[in-house]
Design brief:
With 435 residues, this protein is α/β, with parallel strands linked by helices. It has three domains: 10-124, Rossmann fold, CATH 3.40.50.12160; 145-374, tm_1862 like domain (pyruvate-formate lyase- activating enzyme), CATH 3.80.30; 380-434, Nucleic acid-binding proteins (OB fold (Dihydrolipoamide Acetyltransferase, E2P)). The chain contains 14 helices and 19 strands. Strand 18 and strand 19 form a beta hairpin. Helix 1 (19-34) packs across helix 5 and helix 8 runs parallel beside helix 10 (241-248). The radius of gyration is 22 Å and the shape is globular. The structure holds iron/sulfur cluster. Residues 154, 156-158, 161, 163-164, 198-199, 233 line the site of iron/sulfur cluster (SF4).
Length: 435
C-alpha cells in the first residue's frame, strides 16, 4: 500500500495525441477527483502517474517509451489510451508499469488506481466499444475551451492507420447529448467548443443524422461562444458538402477546416484506401473558399508511403502549391502494427529519401503559411482570447477564421473578446495590437 500525505493519493495525468485523447484525460481527471484523489501538477509530485497515450505515429510511440523509462521508481505507473492496444508486447518488454488499459478508461480509472496502489498489476486491454459518455465528470484544463468528443471510431480502413484497430468502428453520441454538454459547459464559463472525433465527416451516420445537422444544432444554442469543427475525411465531407457549407454559415462556427489529404497522387490515395481523389479534395476546398474566402485550411500529408515514386511526390508538392493551405501537418511514413501497409514492405521508400521529401514539404508549407499570413497584416476585428501566451503578459486569441493572434496586455484577458489590428505575421501565427 503506498504511503500518501494526509491519506489523499496524488495522481498525475499526462496526455499524448489528439483532442479526443485530451477529452479522455479530462474525464480520467474528473473521475479521479470525484473519487477523492488529488491531481498533481507534475510527475514529481505524484504517487501515481497515468500516461494517456497515442499510437498514431512511430515517433510518438518512441517518445512515450523514452518518457516512461524516465519515471522514478517510487511511482506507480498506469499506461492508458491507444498504445497498449496497439503494441502491448513492446511496452511489456521495454518499460515498467503497474497497469495497462485501453482508451476512454475514465470511469474505471479510480478503481484501477486503488488496485495498483495496493500492489496489484492490472492489465485490461479491451477495446472501448461505445460512444463517448458525455455525462461523466471532467476536469477541463482550460476554463475557456470545452473539448467534446462527439463520436469514437470511424468508417475508414486506411492502410497506414492503426487508430481504427484501437478505437474501432464508428459510434456517435446523439445531438441531444452533445447539446446538453455544450449548454452545461456554457454555464461553467466555456466560450469555445472543439467538437472532435477520428473523423467528424462521418459523425452521426450510425444514428441517421449528420455533421451538418450537429453543426446547425450547436449554432442554434443561445449564448456567446464559438465552435471549432475537428478533422474531417474528404470523402465523408464530399458526400454531404452542400449541407455542411450551409451549417458553417452560422457565425458561431469558426471558418476553419481540417481536411487531411495525405497525398497529391491518386495512385497513392488508392493504396492508402482513401476513398477520394485529388480532384475531390481540391473541389471541397474551392467550395469552402467560394463561400468563406478567408477560411483557414489545414491538411495533413504523409511522405514516403510505400510505392511513392518521385512523380507521386512531385504531385503532392504541386497540389500544395495549387491549394496553398494555411496549416500542413507533415508526417514521414512509418509502418504501424496491425495495418495493411505491413504487406507493402517490398515497396517501402528508402528512409533517407523519405526524410528529404518531408524536409522539402516542410520548407514549402512554411513559405506558403508565411505568405498567407502576410495577407492578414492590417486586418482589424474581434478575437476571443483562449490561451495564455508563452511570454509573460502575452495572450493568444482566435478570430473568426480561428487564426492564432498574439497580443500583449497586463490585464487578465483569458475568455475576453478584444478588438485588435494585426501588425505582423509569422508562419504559424499573427501578432496584433489591441485597438
Ligand atoms: S479515417 Fe482512416 S486515418 Fe482516420 S481514424 Fe479512420 S482509418 Fe484512421
Amino acid at each position: 500500500m503506498l504511503p500518501v500525505a494526509m491519506g489523499i493519493m496524488r495522481v498525475f495525468v499526462k496526455t499524448y495525441g489528439c483532442s479526443a485523447n485530451s477529452a479522455d484525460s479530462q474525464v480520467i481527471a474528473g473521475c479521479l477527483l470525484q473519487a477523492g484523489y488529488k491531481l498533481a501538477r507534475s510527475e514529481g509530485d505524484a504517487e501515481v502517474v497515468i500516461y494517456n497515450t497515442c499510437a498514431v505515429k512511430a515517433q510518438t510511440e518512441n517518445r512515450i517509451i523514452a518518457d516512461l523509462k524516465g519515471i522514478a521508481f517510487d511511482k506507480k505507473v498506469i499506461i492508458a489510451g491507444c498504445l497498449p492496444l496497439i503494441c502491448y508486447e513492446r511496452l511489456r518488454k521495454e518499460v515498467r508499469f503497474d497497469a495497462a488499459v485501453g482508451s476512454a478508461a475514465g470511469p474505471a480509472m479510480a478503481d484501477i488506481v486503488k488496485r495498483v496502489s495496493k500492489g496489484e498489476t492490472v492489465i485490461e486491454l479491451s477495446k472501448f466499444e461505445a460512444a463517448p459518455k458525455l455525462d461523466l465528470p471532467r476536469a477541463r484544463s482550460n476554463p475557456v475551451v470545452s473539448i467534446i468528443p462527439v463520436s469514437s471510431g470511424c468508417l475508414g480502413s486506411c492502410t497506414y492507420c492503426c487508430v481504427v484497430s484501437a478505437r474501432g468502428h464508428l459510434k456517435s453520441c446523439s445531438i441531444a447529448e452533445i447539446g446538453n454538454l455544450a449548454r452545461k459547459d456554457l454555464g461553467r464559463g466555456a466560450k469555445e467548443f472543439w467538437i472532435t472525433a477520428q473523423d467528424m465527416g462521418c459523425y452521426g451516420s450510425d444514428l441517421g443524422t449528420s455533421l451538418a445537422k450537429l453543426v446547425r444544432a450547436l449554432g442554434e444554442i443561445e449564448g456567446d461562444f464559438k465552435v471549432r469543427v475537428g478533422m474531417m475525411t474528404p470523402n465523408t465531407v464530399r458526400d454531404d458538402i452542400d449541407d455542411i457549407l450551409e451549417a458553417f454559415k452560422n457565425e458561431r462556427i469558426f471558418k476553419f477546416i481540417h481536411l487531411p489529404v495525405q497525398s497529391g497522387s491518386n495512385k497513392i490515395l488508392r493504396q492508402m484506401n482513401r476513398f477520394y481523389s485529388v480532384k475531390d479534395f481540391e473541389k471541397i476546398v474551392q467550395r469552402f473558399r467560394k463561400v468563406f474566402p478567408r477560411i483557414t485550411v489545414a491538411t495533413d500529408v504523409i511522405c514516403g508511403f510505400p510505392g511513392e515514386s518521385n512523380e507521386d511526390f512531385e504531385n503532392t508538392l504541386s497540389l500544395l502549391e495549387r491549394i496553398r493551405p494555411d496549416i500542413v501537418n507533415v508526417s514521414k511514413f512509418f509502418v504501424r502494427p496491425g495495418t495493411a501497409a505491413l504487406e507493402m514492405r517490398r515497396r517501402f521508400v528508402d528512409f533517407q529519401e523519405t526524410k528529404q521529401r518531408a524536409t522539402k514539404v516542410s520548407r514549402l508549407v512554411k513559405k506558403i503559411s508565411a505568405e498567407n499570413n502576410e495577407t492578414w497584416i492590417g486586418w482589424t476585428g474581434e478575437v476571443l482570447v483562449d490561451e495564455k501566451g508563452k511570454v509573460s503578459g502575452s495572450w493568444v486569441g482566435r478570430n473568426f477564421a480561428y487564426k492564432p493572434i498574439a497580443v500583449r496586455s497586463r490585464e487578465k484577458l483569458l475568455g475576453e473578446k478584444v478588438q485588435v489590428r494585426v501588425v505582423s505575421a509569422f508562419p504559424t501565427y499573427l501578432a496584433a495590437e489591441i485597438c
